[in-house]
C-alpha cells in the first residue's frame, strides 16, 4: 500500500457467540462491500485490494470468518449454516443497510451463497472467486478432512512453507507469512470450514440464489472448472476470466480483480469470457 492509499483500519463487532474481527478501508456512508476469505486464511488475504476498493468509492470490509483469524471460535464444529449465520450476524451488527454486495473466495464464496440463498433481502449482488461446486471426490475429501497435527520439531510448518513457495511463486513474503499465520490461528479446528463446505449441498444453494452473480476464475484456479460449470445453474450469472490468476488473485492480479468486481457492482457490462464445456 502506498503512502497515499486509504488506510486499513481494524476492529471487532459483537455477536451473540463472540466477537468477529474485521479490517476495513473507506469512509462511513460509502457503498458497503463485504469480502469473505477462503479457509484456513483470514481477512488479511484481501489487504492488497481493500485500499483499491476504497478508492472506487466503497467501504470495503473483510471479515475473519468465525473460527478464523482473530474472530471467536465456535464451541462446536459448525455446519455451513452455522458458519454463515455467525457471519451474517456480524454483518448486520455493522449496520451497513439492508442489502449489501458480497465478494467471496472459496470457503467465503460458499458462505456468501448460503447467505444469499437463505436471507435474500440481505444481499444485493455476489462476486465469487472459486465457487465450491465440488464433484463427489472433492466433496468427500473436504468432508473427511482430518484435524492438523504438529510435532515438536515444527517439521509440518516447514512443509507448509515449502508448499506455499512452490504453489504460489507470485505471493510475496509478507502474504506467505499471513497465510501460514492464518492456518495456525485456526488451531485444532483448521478442518472445520472445509468439512462444512464438503458436507453442504452447494448445488441446491446455487439454484436458490436469485441475485445477480459474477463468477470469476481462471484456468489456473483449482476451482476454475467448477466455477464455470456453476454459471448455468444460477438464475442470473456471468463468468469472467482473469488469465493467469490463482488462489492469490488479490495479490497478483489485484487491479483486474477490483476492476471486474467494481464494474459488476456498478451494473456495467463486463466482457464475458467463453465458458468452456
TrEMBL record:
<dbReference type="Pfam" id="PF00561">
    <property type="entry name" value="Abhydrolase_1"/>
</dbReference>
<dbReference type="InterPro" id="IPR000073">
    <property type="entry name" value="AB_hydrolase_1"/>
</dbReference>
<feature type="domain" description="AB hydrolase-1">
    <location>
        <begin position="32"/>
        <end position="139"/>
    </location>
</feature>
<dbReference type="InterPro" id="IPR029058">
    <property type="entry name" value="AB_hydrolase_fold"/>
</dbReference>
<dbReference type="InterPro" id="IPR050266">
    <property type="entry name" value="AB_hydrolase_sf"/>
</dbReference>
<keyword id="KW-0378">Hydrolase</keyword>
<dbReference type="GO" id="GO:0016787">
    <property type="term" value="F:hydrolase activity"/>
</dbReference>
<protein>
    <recommendedName>
        <fullName>AB hydrolase-1 domain-containing protein</fullName>
    </recommendedName>
</protein>
Amino acid at each position: 500500500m502506498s503512502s497515499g492509499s486509504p488506510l486499513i483500519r481494524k476492529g471487532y463487532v459483537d455477536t451473540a457467540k463472540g466477537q468477529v474481527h474485521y479490517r476495513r478501508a473507506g469512509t462511513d456512508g460509502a457503498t458497503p462491500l463485504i469480502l469473505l476469505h477462503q479457509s484456513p486464511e483470514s481477512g488479511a488475504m484481501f489487504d492488497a485490494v481493500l485500499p483499491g476498493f476504497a478508492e472506487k468509492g466503497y467501504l470495503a470490509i473483510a471479515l475473519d470468518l468465525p473460527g478464523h483469524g482473530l474472530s471467536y471460535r465456535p464451541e462446536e464444529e459448525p455446519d455451513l449454516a452455522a458458519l454463515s449465520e455467525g457471519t451474517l450476524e456480524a454483518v448486520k451488527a455493522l449496520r451497513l443497510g439492508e442489502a449489501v454486495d458480497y465478494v467471496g473466495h472459496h470457503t467465503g464464496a460458499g458462505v456468501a451463497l448460503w447467505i444469499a440463498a437463505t436471507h435474500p433481502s440481505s444481499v444485493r449482488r455476489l462476486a465469487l472467486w472459486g465457487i465450491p461446486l465440488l464433484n463427489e471426490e472433492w466433496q468427500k475429501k473436504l468432508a473427511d478432512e482430518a484435524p492438523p497435527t504438529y510435532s515438536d520439531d515444527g517439521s509440518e510448518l516447514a512443509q507448509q512453507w515449502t508448499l506455499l513457495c512452490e504453489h504460489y511463486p507470485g505471493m510475496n513474503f509478507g502474504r506467505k507469512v499471513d497465510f501460514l499465520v492464518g492456518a495456525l490461528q485456526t488451531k485444532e479446528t483448521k478442518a472445520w470450514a472445509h468439512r462444512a463446505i464438503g458436507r453442504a449441498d452447494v448445488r441446491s444453494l446455487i439454484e436458490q440464489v436469485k441475485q445477480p452473480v459474477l463468477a470469476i476464475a481462471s484456468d489456473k484456479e483449482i476451482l476454475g472448472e467448477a466455477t464455470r460449470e456453476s454459471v448455468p445453474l444460477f438464475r442470473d450469472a456471468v463468468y469472467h476470466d482473469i488469465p493467469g490468476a490463482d488462489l492469490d488473485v488479490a495479490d497478483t492480479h489485484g487491479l483486474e480483480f477490483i476492476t471486474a468486481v467494481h464494474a459488476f457492482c456498478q451494473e456495467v457490462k463486463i466482457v464475458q469470457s467463453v465458458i468452456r464445456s
